[in-house]
Structures are given as C-alpha cells and as structure tokens.
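Risk register update: the risk of archive-format incompatibility is retired. Evidence:
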Amino acid sequence: MSFPVSIVSQGYRFLVAGVAIAAFLATISVSVSATAQEAQKTPDAAGAQVNDPLEPINRVTSGFNRVVRGAIINPLVDGYKAVTPEPVQKGVSNVISNLTEPITAGSSLLQGDTKNAATATQRFIVNSTLGFAGIKDEASGMGLRQRKEDLGQAAGADGIGSGPHIVLPILGPSNVRDATGAVITGIANPLGIISAADSANSYVKNKNEIDSADKAALDPYVVERDAYEQNRRFKINNGRRQAGGKQDFPSISSDEDTPPAAK
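Archived output:
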C-alpha cells in the first residue's frame, strides 16, 4: 500500500524541484540581461528605479486581480469579519504569525543576523507553549519583538537585485527575486502554505486601506507596483530609508513592531 504513496511523493518532489530550478534560471537570466533592461526602468514616487519591462502583461493581470478582489475576495473578507468576534480574529492572526517564525529564523541566519534568528526561535517556542499554539503573543510581553524576514529579503540584503516586477494572478504584486524566494520557501518548509496564509491575513487586516488607496489613485496599477517595491526596500533595509528617499506607500499595519535601524 505504501508503494503508490511513495510514487506520488517522489513525483511531487520532482515537480517542486523543477519549479525551483525554473525560478532559479529565471533569476540568472534577469542578472545576465540587466543591462539590456536598464532603458525600461522607470522611477517610482520615491525616485527609485522600478524594473517593469512586463508592464503590459502586468496591467492585465492587475486588472484581473482587482475584479476578483471586488467580486469574490472582498465579500468573503467582509463576511468573515462580520461573523467572527474580534478576539477570535486576533487569535487566528496570532497563530498564522507564529508559524512564520521558523521562516524568519532561517532567513535571518542567511543574512548573518543571528540575533533576530535567535529572537524568532525564542518567540516560536514561547508562543507555541505558553501562548497555546500561538493563539496568544506571550513573547512580545517578554520583550521578544517580532521582525519578520523571508528569503526575498535575505537575497536583497545580500545584494541580489529584485529583477523585473511581476504581478501574480490572485497573489498580486511581486518581483522575480521575491517570487523565487517564495517558491523555495514552499519547498523547504513543510508548512509552505503558511506564507500564503500570512499574506491573506495581512490583506484581511488592511483591506480598507488598500481599497481606499486604489479608489483615490489615478492609476491603481502604478500605486500598487510602487507601494510593493518601496515596502520591500524598506523591509530589506530593516526600516532605514535611503538617503534622500521618502516613504510614499500607504501605511500598512503589521503584527511586527517597527524594525530597528540596523541589523
């Protein structure tokens, strides 16, 4: 009986490995063609260069995502908030946030940030035990402040460029570096779904702010693109703004505290 299961398991591993290899090759391709793409970079609202050679395709996908959000996702979110008591919503949010701590620990280690890796590990142990599987955030009360990290941030901190901006169906704005990191995380982490759940949880908490920004924008695509890229640079720099730069993306709440000025 175990033989068919083994075949399925091996097939899945080959599949995800193939996806990872394809993503890796895409990253290499981006690096090789960076010079050719330089002319297709445009400045965002903060004056930084945004690599967006796929803008025509991205706009179509972005428009599709807004339709899906308005017709399906937003009603589901509103319904969830209407029937779920706030303490339960907070508990669910805490559980999801706690499950991202191993990702933060590993990503911090890749940057040589042993302090944040240790903090994330301690937070996971404390909240998984004293916090009843993460329902309560007991670690923050003990002075263990959360600063989330992922493989995209680790790669960016190590000097790897973002590559072209891409918009993923349903998942929204990203870039080649961050999308590759997400694929690898999904393969390495048996709870790979947690990253997607964390993104969904963030959207639930910030839906109103995102909707307001879209409605007020003359070009929602540019607002979403620039907000994503600026926010990622902000996180990669652990809260430090680049000299002469400004934060122009909407204020988005998070479970984590304001990151320190330096690693």
